[in-house]
Amino acid sequence: MKSTDQSKPWYREPWPWILMAGPALAIVGCGITIYLAVSNFGDQEIRDGGVKRGLVVTKPQIEVEPRH
Predict the structure, then answer these.
(1) 8 Å CB contact between 49 and 59
(2) What sections of the chain are H helices per DSSP?
(3) Spatial distance between the Cα atoms of 32 and 44, rounded to a whole number of angstroms
(4) 15-35 burial, b for 16+ CB within 10 Å, e for fewer?
């Protein structure tokens, strides 16, 4: 009897590609999301009295006199 049970290389099988498709799509979606966030909202001004110092945005505290 001849043995015809030869395995194909991994890249010729469909299962590795199916299993890699999910993480690959997540990476592409993440890249698109980062691009859209930077291109559309990267240069918006800060409202409500916020102050930007480097990458930190702070809102100055208003001092209120205590009531008697």
Answers:
(1) yes
(2) 14-41
(3) 19
(4) eeeeeeeeeeeeeeeeeeeee
Statement: the pTM of the whole predicted model exceeds 0.70: no
The predicted model gives 21-42 an average pLDDT of 93
With cut-offs at 50, 70 and 90, classify the pLDDT of residue 19. Answer: very high
- Which of 29, 31, 57 is CA-nearest to residue 44? 57
Listed by start position, the domains of the chain span 10-58
Q: Contact, 48 vs 59, CB < 8 A?
A: yes
Q: For position 17, what pLDDT does the model report?
A: 96
Q: What are the tokens at 56?
A: 């930190």
Give residue for tokens 């009531």: 67
- Amino acid found at 61: Q
